[in-house]
Design a protein that fits this description.
The protein has 2 domains: 160 residues, UbiA prenyltransferase (Tetracycline Repressor, domain 2, Orthogonal Bundle); 133 residues. It is built from 13 helices and no strands. The radius of gyration is 20 Å and the shape is flat. The chain has 303 residues and is mainly alpha-helical.
Length: 303
């Protein structure tokens, strides 16, 4: 458990921007977007007010995960260049405030989801928060190089939660969407971890490049990209979407595989020479946004 001592003495009291930073807005944007897509492609359309409430709950739940993650990892974040300026390691906020903020957001998100939509969606939201905080952050991340593989399930919940919020039940399509994000997560984060390997090594986090080396990580990136691409086109092959999504998913996934192949062929150990890894990481974010955007567009085309 983290100590309550700040790595640096607080100079200024936390302001609203520090609380926003605790929620990890960049990560939240992808979570909210995928949850919204799950809601929109569901066969039942909620009233606008309830739809907004469901997406707000997913956003609050994601923010709770970010805040509790940073509360628990304050000492780790202080050792990494890309996280050292976060509110807690920079000394702009005390850990108790972050803990209360995270727990409050999580409790509010689950309660509001249950009241606004249904309790199955609320239970899934609670499960995703607990999985991210307890299974991934506390247990997996500091102990095993497979932390991202298993922990990726937490980030794969939003489209499933969005669907269940609208329908009250689970179906094949949202499970496939869960699988796409689950399989996308390892190549996405491992591409990042390759060119920030020294940060993870300094912090003592056993990410795959630190434990298994560059070559093994690059090979795993390509291998995980294969079932991810198969999962991406599966909704079309199973007749759950139209050809617009199917063709788009195939093209987007082919580009992903080409970039993953470039990563697998790279032998660089200096981050300055890891253009292939940086390109894959940037494209992986675009890939998921584009894939889910086409999914929604395909849903509303007049087939």
């Amino acid at each position: 458990m983290p100590t309550l001592e700040l790595p640096n003495p607080a100079v200024l009291p936390a302001d609203w921007r520090d609380f926003v930073a605790l929620t990890k807005p960049r990560v939240m944007s992808l979570v909210v977007f995928s949850g919204l897509c799950g809601l929109l492609v569901a066969p039942v359309q909620l009233p606008v007010v309830l739809s907004f409430a469901a997406i707000l709950c997913i956003a609050l739940g994601a923010g709770a995960c970010g805040a509790l993650n940073q509360w628990y990892e304050v000492e780790v974040d202080a050792k990494m260049r890309r996280t050292a300026k976060r509110p807690l390691p920079a000394g702009r906020m005390d850990p108790q405030s972050a803990l209360h903020f995270g727990v409050g957001l999580g409790a509010l998100s689950v309660l509001l989801m249950g009241l606004a939509t249904n309790w199955l969606a609320a239970a899934m939201l609670l499960a995703s928060i607990l999985f991210y905080v307890l299974i991934y952050t506390v247990w997996l991340k500091p102990r095993t190089a497979q932390n991202i593989v298993i922990g990726g399930a937490a980030g794969a919940f939003p489209p499933l939660i969005g669907w269940v919020a609208a329908t009250g039940q689970v179906a094949t399509l949202p499970l496939l969407l869960f699988g796409i994000i689950f399989l996308w997560t390892p190549p996405h984060f491992w591409a990042l971890s390759l060119f920030v390997r020294s940060d993870y090594a300094d912090a003592g986090i056993p990410m795959l490049p630190v434990v298994a080396g560059f070559e093994s990580t690059r090979r795993q990136i390509f291998l995980y990209s294969l079932p991810m691409a198969a999962a991406a086109v599966a909704p079309w092959l199973l007749g759950l979407t139209g050809p617009v999504f199917g063709v788009s998913a195939a093209v987007l996934s082919l580009v992903f595989l080409v970039l993953a192949g470039r990563v697998a062929a790279n032998r660089a150990t200096d981050p300055k020479d890891m253009g292939a890894e940086k390109h894959l990481f940037a494209y992986s974010v675009f890939y998921l946004f584009a894939l889910f955007t086409v999914l929604v567009a395909d849903r509303f085309l007049p087939w």
